[in-house]
Amino acid sequence: MKNPFLKKQNIFVYLSVLFLALTQLSCNNDNNNPDDGDDDDDVPVGTLPPVETKPANSTYVAAFKGQTRIAGIKTETAYTSKAFATGLTNPWGMDNLPDGRIIVTQKAGTMKIVTQTGTVGAAITGILPVNNEGQGGLLDVAVDPAFVTNRMIYWSYSFPGTGGTATAVAKGKLSADETKIEGAVTIYKAIPEFNSTLHYGSRLVWDAQGNLFVSTGERSDIQSRPLAQKLDAALGKIVRITKNGEPAAGNPFIGQTGVLPEIYSYGHRNPQGLAIHPVTGELWEAEHGPLGGDEINRIAAGKNYGWPTITYGLEYSGAKIGDGITTKSGMEQPVYYWDPVVSPSGLTFYSGNLIPEWKNNLFAAALSGQHVVRLVIKDNVVVAEERLLTSANSRFRDVLEGKDGALYAVTDGANATIYRIAK
Predict the structure, then answer these.
(1) What is the 3-state secondary structure (H, E, C) of the chain?
(2) Contact, 286 vs 345, CB < 8 A?
(3) Burial zone of 323 (CB within 10 Å; 0-12 exposed, 13-18 middle, 19+ buried)
(4) Which of 199, 268, 277, 288 is catalytic?
(5) Fewer CB atoms inside 10 A, N or C side of the chain?
């Protein structure tokens, strides 16, 4: 006769071995998961009330939980936010030089270099003429990844054409004495030119292969707005080009008839923020909505982000845009949106160590919001939001992680200030 105790004991041993095996398999999978670099398991979730307390402009309903008005959070690490550099005139974009200094564009058409101690240098000349009307002028700046050997600088600007203006990209060599740009040349122009001084975009960011992502606006006109959906126009797009302005290899529409090969994604309104996730290498974007509907998007090659067919915003008159829909098959949803707007401009991920709890958080400079946005992200979903530098009472144009691990934010307008946020 079989012993029932031994049978139960065997079952227990089998289940214990199975549990240990599954546990080990789970650990191995975690260790080999490339997405685990962002430590999603340790990401704090917001527990405070949402930071936005004003009523929304529309009655639109979010497509998923947490797409807007997520819970608030407060940074626990003690930090300081101090004025670092002053005296800039209508700055627009910032980037790091290899030695830790920061190069800044000024809308009228000059650049300046800010030292590690906050001293602002003289205006750098030799930059191509810009159209400085409205939202136009000298816009973003991107230092060549090989700057140490080639001293090349890239910038976006409003090109003064014969048929109107256009978002354009130029490059040139910073002279040895850092007083001028040498050999400046336009390498790319977003067609068609259009008679508007609004919605140029435009941010620049390098991909891992040394190609340049460029965001362009749809020029804020009823006539030009539909071009955001057209693949034979570069308005309302993110394009990816080489250092010479050619379409980058691997772009999603290369070889298709009637389609601009530089296009990477489309259906954008006025994208003024681009940033590369430091762990995944994915491109993230911030764009201005109309009356409500500012967006944060995770950009994938060839995808349509909806404008003006779908939006969480309204016309400035309060009327619906188009059919007044927020979702449509084949069009991407924003990861996050704001209503009312905060007007997100420059965008950066924090990868430094000065404030560890900010690791891989997304920061945006908010113009109308007059603060710096902190978004905590877990599994590509926003789980908490915080507002920084609210006491400055200033419109913020760009935000940058410095070589020293601090976060730098520059205000908009005349006599602007760069703030340094650090432990």
Answers:
(1) CCCHHHHHHHHHHHHHHHHHHHHHHHHHHHHHCHHHHHCHHHCCCCCECCCCCCCCCCCCCCCCCCCCCCCECCCCCCCEEEEEEEEECCEEEEEECCCCCEEEEECCCEEEEECCCCCECCCEECCCCCCCCCCCCEEEEEECCCHHHHCEEEEEEEEECCCCEEEEEEEEEECCCCCEEEEEEEEEECCCCECCCCCCEEEEEECCCCCEEEEECCCCCCCCHHHHHCCCCCCCEEEEECCCCCECCCCCCCCCCCCCCCEEEECCCEEEEEEECCCCCCEEEEEECCECCEEEEEECCCCECCCCCECCCECCCCCCCCCCECCCCCCCCCCEEECCCCCEEEEEECCCCCCHHHCCCEEEEECCCCEEEEEEEECCEEEEEEEECHHHCCCEEEEEECCCCCEEEEECCCCEEEEEEEC
(2) yes
(3) exposed
(4) 199
(5) N
Backbone angles phi, psi at 197, to 5 degrees: -115, 25
- Verify whether residue 199 is a known catalytic residue: yes
Contact between 88 and 120 under an 8 Å Cβ cutoff? The reply is: yes
Could you read off the pLDDT of 304-318 as tens digits, one per residue? 999 999 999 999 999
pLDDT in tens, 335-376: 999 999 999 999 999 999 999 999 999 999 999 999 999 999
36/30 Cα distance (integer angstroms): 7
73 contacts: CB under 8 Å, gap ≥ 6: 44, 45, 46, 47, 48, 374, 376, 384, 385, 386
pLDDT score at 46: 85
Residues ≥6 apart with Cβ < 8 Å to 65: none
Angle at 286 between CA 67 and CA 93, to 5 degrees: 155
* Residue that has been written with the tokens 């704090």 in this structure: 44
Checking if the pLDDT of 18 tops 50, the result is: no
Give the pLDDT confidence of 102-120 residue by residue, as tens digits.
Answer: 999 999 999 999 999 999 9
pTM of the entire predicted model: 0.90
Structure tokens at 257: 């008839």
